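Section 5.1 Outputs to date
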Amino acid sequence: MNHKLDTPVTATGPVAATPSRSSVWKQRGASWLVKGNLLIVFLVICAVAAMLSPEFLTVRNLSNLLQQSSLTGIIAVGMTLVILTSGIDLSVGSTAALSGMVVAIALDGFVPVPLAILLALLVGAALGFLMGSISAWLRLPAFIVTLAGLTAIRGLAYLTTDGKPVGQNLPESFTLLGGGYIGYIPTTGIIFVVVALLAACLLRFTTFGEYIYAVGSNEEAARLSGVPVKWVQASVFALSGLTAAIAGVLLTSRLTIAQPTSFQGAELDAIAAVVLGGASLFGGRGGIGGTFIAVLLLSVLKNLFNLMGMGSFFQMVVTGVILILALILNKVLDVRRAN
């Protein structure tokens, strides 16, 4: 039976149709102001960076910037889907690290490249689905479940090779996936754009995308409207695990070696980008476009700091301040919309 959002039911039966589709679009449109302002800020910072450092607009630097932002961006795309349902996934960094280890171990065992990549992606998606299922069906906070997953999955990454790097002799056809270029454009950047476009189309043109916004806006109303809430929640975590696995595979490909210590803190960078992009941590508002701009904005800031010789500690402080300011802005917009 195909349940539609615009034909809700109550516990006793169907009721009059409500403009839930319009409500979904209203929730999507609420972040347009944030994205517009964010785009302006991004362009201004790019202009300032170009004036402060003549190296900023060089082809080599812009190519490096896209490559450096792509892995965080891919993870942030999956995180956006989770946060839109009012969830959060703290296990993505560990999942990316484990998936990178899995593909390297498989390739060292002479598994064909496509099959090794598929295996790593399946591991990531399965771990995400497990986290989401535990949270959804046992009604446990996603924060706690994925925090436990962060530790347990990272432990698995260490156990796979007793904490040692693996994959010193990866095939060249695989290393080109994460370390190659098409012209001056890194392949990782192209994959980031493709993943973002696919996720944007999922949210905008599919019923599942409407379900994601509906669950994040009002879980109980979505359930009464026939939305399979628990399956939606578990599925977005599976997609988050999948995007984390893609990032893990690409990093292993780019470095030509898999490190169990990789992607530490990646979940915080992804959450910062999603929130800065206008998504509400309470769910129901945000989109891939805002996340995409925010990822580039944070990367430009880090790139500018590096060109100016500023240390990583200072960069951490600035990232934290930006996240706090984004949360304050989201709160102000929530209050204005409520009034």
